[in-house]
Design a protein that fits this description.
By secondary structure, the protein is α+β, with helices and mostly antiparallel strands. The chain has a single domain (24-394), classed as Jelly Rolls, CATH 2.60.120. The protein has eleven helices and 14 strands. It has helices at 57-64, 76-83, 86-96, 119-128, 134-146, 157-169, 198-202, 206-215, 228-234, 237-247, 327-341, and strands at 26-31, 48-53, 67-68, 148-151, 181-183, 196-197, 219-221, 251-259, 283-288, 299-301, 347-348, 356-360, 365-367, 379-386. The strands form three sheets. An eight-stranded antiparallel beta sheet has the order 4-12-9-14-8-7-5-6. A three-stranded antiparallel beta sheet has the order 2-1-3. A three-stranded antiparallel beta sheet has the order 11-10-13, with no helix packed on it. Helix 4 runs antiparallel to helix 5 (134-146) and helix 6 (157-169) crosses helix 9. It is globular. Bound molecules: 2-oxoglutaric acid (AKG) and fe (ii) ion. 2-oxoglutaric acid (AKG) binds at residues 257, 259, 263, 265, 270, 284, 299, 365-367, 379, 381.
Length: 401
């Protein structure tokens, strides 16, 4: 039997969830967002009332005209975002960015527990000592052996509906949200643009906007900053509890992506697109925002592929990955992944609305081919990491995105 050294996450095990995370204050407030949908086919918004996390409600409140029974201070990052214009924030980030590439140790004691040879024994111990329910034990066993697990029905439908309605309203808002961009939007007959700001979108006629919406495989990032519904899901306690149980320390949501259609994204590992240190301390979570049909280009994944070593040309990870790779290395990575996919069975995630698919940073996954382009594939993706593991700010450019 191989005995791995005791796992020491950033926070001590006493801080471990399997209980509600810190953000558990809920307030009831009425949500009545501004703007109305006038284009045929877009549902008219009805005001609704939901239990939503109270953090950052003021920022959202300004934008969504929330009425709350409770006042809470604005977070520092929200305050900075609302006071300093985006170009200035970008410039400040450039000036503060690191200039010298550092050497990142490839061998570190901080291998996540699930990548250690005794991972299943550790799970057994956690169960024996009362730290895991049977259900969680089952999910985490699947995580260890196959690099993913599925938690069914954990996000309430009404919460998803609120986020979807907010997302829908973006296309017809009266005022743009500063800092909100759409990626890969194709306007008219133009090629898809990497980024189109919300302000640019709203300059188009309603018909042009709708055409762009339905003809593009667009996505938007960090919608939780603009939508109370998205924010409630981003901070959803059960998602955080499960991601924390996987990482075995407190998991923090790092960013989000909303998709309306399939992504058709090539198979990849998230380690290749995120800068995570120590490696593999990342959990992807893909929330089905409608029942996913087989022809819409579902999320594809390759069970057990998470055991593959990191691509050899990413030899100073997390500095070297796809985001910083030159074209030759990027091409070699694509070939490497293509070769790997031949060794594993490909599966599709056909989740029901509210189901969540969690995956390991090294598990191959992507967007499968879209057989029927008229079908939507509404999803919300969140990536979790422990505090301090997202080292994006310590990476030196130039960057590919
Ligand atoms: O939703 C998809 O098709 C792929 C998403 C993905 O790869 C990711 O967010 O890491
Ligand atoms: Fe990914």
């Amino acid at each position: 039997m191989i005995v791995a050294p005791a796992f020491r996450p950033w926070s001590s095990l006493q801080e471990m969830p399997d209980r509600k995370p810190a953000n558990k204050t809920f307030s009831r407030f009425a949500l009545s967002a501004g703007g109305s949908s006038t284009v045929a086919g877009l549902p008219r918004r009805e005001p609704s009332t939901l239990a939503l996390p109270a953090n950052r409600w003021r920022v959202l409140g300004d934008r969504f005209r929330l009425t709350s029974d409770q006042s809470r201070p604005m977070s520092i990052s929200s305050l900075v975002r609302s006071v300093i214009p985006t170009p200035l924030r970008k410039r400040a980030r450039e000036l503060l960015a690191p200039r010298h590439i550092r050497h990142w140790p490839s061998k570190t004691a901080q291998v996540p527990w699930f990548d250690r040879p005794d991972a299943l024994e550790q799970l057994e111990n956690r169960r024996r000592t009362g730290g895991l329910s049977d259900k969680d034990y089952e999910l985490l066993t699947r995580w260890v052996t196959d690099g993913y697990c599925v938690a069914e029905g954990i996000i309430p439908e009404d919460l998803i509906n609120v986020m979807m309605r907010d997302l829908n309203d973006l296309w017809m808002n009266d005022q743009p949200f500063a800092g909100l961009d759409f990626c890969d939007l194709r306007i008219g007959n133009d090629a898809p643009k990497p980024k189109t700001s919300h302000a640019e979108l709203l300059k188009l006629t309603p018909t042009e906007r709708m055409q762009a919406r339905i003809q593009s495989n667009w996505r938007t990032h960090s919608f939780q900053k603009y939508s109370a519904g998205a924010n409630a899901i981003f901070n959803h306690p059960e998602m955080a509890r499960l991601a924390s149980s996987i990482l075995y320390c407190r998991a923090l949501p790092q960013g989000s992506i909303n998709f309306e259609y399939g992504s058709k994204q090539d198979a990849h590992q998230d380690t290749a697109v995120f800068h995570v240190f120590p490696a593999n301390h990342i959990v992807g979570a893909w929330i089905a925002c409608e029942d996913i049909s087989i022809d819409c280009g579902p999320l594809m994944f390759y069970p057990a592929s998470h055991r593959e070593p990191l691509f050899s040309k990413f030899n100073n990870y997390p500095q070297t990955n796809l985001r910083t790779a030159n074209p030759e290395v990027a091409r070699a990575y694509r070939e490497h992944v293509n070769d790997l996919t031949r060794n594993y069975e490909r599966r599709l995630f056909l989740g029901k609305k509210g189901d969540v698919f969690f995956w390991h940073g090294m598990m191959l996954h992507g967007g499968s081919e879209i057989k029927d382009p008229s079908l939507t594939r509404k999803s919300f993706v969140i990536h979790y990491m422990p505090k301090g593991a997202n080292v994006e700010g310590r990476i030196v450019g130039p960057f590919n995105w």
